[in-house]
Amino acid sequence: MVAAPASRPVAAAEAGLSLSFRGVSHAFRLDDAPLPVLEGIDLDIAPGDFVALLGPSGCGKSTLLRLAAGLDAPAAGAVLANGAAIAGPDPSRVLVFQDPTLFPWRSVRDNVATGPQARGVAVQAQARIDAALALVGLSAFAGAYPHQLSGGMAQRAALARALVNDPLLLLLDEPLGKLDSLTRLAMQDELLKLWQEAGYTALLVTHDVEEALLLANRVIVLSDRPARIKADIAVGLPHPRRREDGEIVRLRHDILAIMGYGG
Strand 19-30 vs strand 33-45: parallel, antiparallel, or unpaired? Predict the structure, then answer.
């Protein structure tokens, strides 16, 4: 089931980068034997797209994010950003994990400033740090410490730490997976707003079919390990979307059937 990508905001198309996987296969070593994780992944993501990855646990979704971030190199094939092979990490490609991983001894502002400080540009980036805090609604908590934050606030701080680098590609590895249901709903709205305002390309790993349909322009369904692409589905609905929308309900049913949960 393959469909053309849905339209995306003009601002996002101008700011994000393109991402391509060309015949990507990967494996890990387990007990001195190869454990295939990805097999023959071919995928093109246009600048400014918001794409969600769905699939069984352990099928290789997070591995795709690590390859796109440049943290790992594929065993076969190539991963390209704006047409150039990814050879390692770069501030233009930022990975946000399920856990906020904030430094407990640093204030929220100092956590957000980690990237600029590591690059030696913290002094010049003061306004950008303030802007990132404002973008996620944490200006009033700049002096707070991680233990003083709720789960949603801590995840917003992690997003601000990523956004302060002005990424062209934001890689999201189940960033809402450990939040309670009400906070998760609020953070879904935050992620959508940030994508619309900041204009980056987004690649989201999630196990929540409804979350994927509410946020993404495209939903990629992966098979069991070693992962192959089973479906590439366009979500041609404007934002904001409603959970009870008939098209959302239909697509959710179709995707669950593709994943083996039909009926």
Answer: antiparallel
pTM of the model: 0.87
Tokens 């189940």 -> residue: 174
Superfamily of domain 10-92+168-258 in CATH is P-loop containing nucleotide triphosphate hydrolases (3.40.50.300)
Q: Tell me, what's the pLDDT at 263?
A: 55
pLDDT digits over 75-109, tens only?
999 999 999 999 999 989 999 988 888 999 999 99
Dihedral of alpha carbons 6, 38, 210, 153, sign? negative
**HEC letters along 102-144:** CCCCCCHHHHHCHHHHHCCCCCCCHHHHHHHHHHCCCHHHCCC
> Is the pLDDT score of 122 beyond 80?
no
Dihedral sign (CA 242, 246, 247, 252): positive
Percentage with pLDDT > 90 across the chain: 59
| CB-based contact 90:252 (threshold 8 Å) | no
What is the spatial distance between Cα 115 and Cα 128, in angstroms, rounded to a whole number? 11
* pLDDT exceeds 50 at position 130: yes
Does residue 262 or residue 98 have the better pLDDT?
98
Q: For residues 159 and 166, what is the distance between their CA atoms, to the nearest angstrom?
A: 11
* Residue at 177: amino acid letter: G
Neighbours of 193 (CB within 10 A): 15
Location of each CATH 3.40.50.300 domain in the chain: 10-92+168-258
